[in-house]
Amino acid sequence: MQKELNNYPYVSLATQKLDNSWVWTPIWFAQLPTSERYVAFSAGKAGKVKRLRNFSTVQIRPCTATGRPLADAESGNAILINDLAACADAHVAICSKYGWQMRVLDFFSRLSGNYQRRQWIEFHLSETS
User: Do 12 and 26 form a contact (C-beta atoms < 8 A)?
Assistant: First the structure.
């Protein structure tokens, strides 16, 4: 699914809870240039960010904007990005994919003060997928 994933506008990212159950969340994502890694962003205090601090294992599947699955899930790993250069690269990748929609979101995020509170996420599919 690695090559096909970028053909979808959204993926659903599942993060693991302490009770070992999974929480699925549809997200915007983009592939990093010349890489098999993907990036996404979230509110810094979102549940998925808290869960990623506990478990790096994730499940990923293409989905609609509302989260309806479009393919089977595959395992992967995710990390929280804190390096400013890596965050900037992630932002460029997302802006390249979502264009005006991301610029509008950035505008309102800056107005509300949420822009600086974003948490960037990097993920990839497991090699055994």
Answer: yes
Residue 113 burial by Cβ neighbours in a 10 Å radius (0-12, 13-18, 19+): exposed
- Nearest residue to 27 via CA among 52, 72, 76, 63: 63
Q: How far is residue 72's CA from residue 64's CA, in Å, rounded to a whole number?
A: 13
Name the percent of the chain lying above pLDDT 70: 96
Mean pLDDT over 97-112 rounds to: 84
Give pTM, 2 decimals. 0.87
Closest CA to 81 of 35, 123, 113: 123
Of 18, 38, 20, the C-alpha closest to 30 is 38
Q: State the residue for tokens 């601090």.
A: 53
Q: Which tokens sit at 7?
A: 């053909």
Give the containing element (helix H, strand E) for 80.
strand 74-81
Is residue 103 very low, low, confident or very high in pLDDT (cuts 50, 70, 90)? confident
- Which two three-digit tokens encode residue 113? 């003060």
Helix (H, G, I), strand (E, B), or coil: what is residue 118?
strand
